[in-house]
Specification:
Blueprint: H1 3-13, E1 16-21, E2 34-39, H2 45-53, E3 71-76, E4 84-88, H3 99-115, E5 119-126, H4 134-148, E6 153-158, H5 166-180, E7 190-194, H6 203-215
Parallel strand pairs: 2-4, 2-5, 5-6, 6-7
Antiparallel strand pairs: 1-3, 3-4
Length: 254
């Protein structure tokens, strides 16, 4: 392991719970860069976070559909002077979640990704056997403009890569890169990485990349997306029924 990888893994291991919130206005207004972790239910998001931070129970994967409906924040760095925050957003796409819950969480997640000034990067967890699904693309649309403008970085992590052979891993990586071409601009900073919690493939690389986001912020970081009022709990976003939102189901190791 290189010195930079050791430093990045040590930094990730400092992650500790800060707070949980079900609405944006409940989130603390700390002047620290936030890295948001998002993904479909059972994409291995919680497992990946726990592997990255080398903590078995930092991120909670609910066994009961509908239970995980909060944004959980974790600080990183020295306790008395943290330098970053991980934001664990609810998994989406679980069919048993009520329509009203889907709409509410779609509004909360959309507002967070579009408007949160502290958002510095988004880590999207994707099952490489599925690639970017329609729900993943809908979520990316929420933050696409900020990625295009160089305000927010994007990393797509292909979890559970150990379930594929080398040829299929390469094909999955190339397929997602092709899907992401539509989001690329001169200012956009977009990466894709293979990851496995079982074999530890890609863990150090992901830790180093996220750490580099903190050490080298984008010029546009902190510029909140203009326009749009916070959605209320009763609002229904103008998208198809069953779009991004919902509770995170239990996960299998990634």
């Amino acid at each position: 392991m290189s010195d930079s990888a050791k430093a990045a893994m040590g930094w990730a291991h400092t992650a500790r719970f800060l707070t949980t919130a079900s609405q944006l206005h409940q989130l603390p207004e700390m002047e620290l860069p936030e890295i948001a972790f998002v993904g479909r239910s059972n994409a291995g998001k919680s497992t990946a976070i726990n592997t990255l931070t080398q903590q078995k129970r930092l991120a909670f994967a609910s066994k009961t559909p509908g239970r995980t409906q909060h944004i959980n924040l974790f600080t990183l760095g020295p306790k008395d002077q943290p330098d970053a925050i991980f934001a664990d957003l609810p998994g989406y796409g679980y069919a048993a979640v009520t329509r009203s819950a889907k709409y509410r969480w779609q509004a909360v997640m959309a507002d967070y990704l579009r408007q949160r000034p502290q958002l510095a990067g988004v880590v999207l967890m994707v099952d490489p056997r599925l690639g970017l699904t329609e729900l993943d693309l809908q979520l990316l649309d929420f933050v696409a403009e900020r990625v295009h403008m160089g305000e927010v970085r994007l990393l797509v992590v292909l979890t559970k890569s150990d379930k594929l052979n080398r040829r299929d891993q390469d094909a999955a990586l190339a397929g997602v890169q092709d899907q992401l071409a539509a989001y690329s601009t001169q200012d956009a900073d977009i990466s894709v990485a293979l990851f496995s919690a079982l074999s530890k493939k890609g863990v150090e690389d992901v830790a180093e990349l996220i750490r580099s986001w903190i050490d080298d912020p984008l010029p546009g970081f902190g510029a909140a997306q203009a326009g749009g009022d916070d959605a209320s709990e009763g609002d229904e976003p103008a998208t198809a029924d069953g779009a991004v939102a919902g509770a995170e189901d239990g996960e299998q190791p990634s």
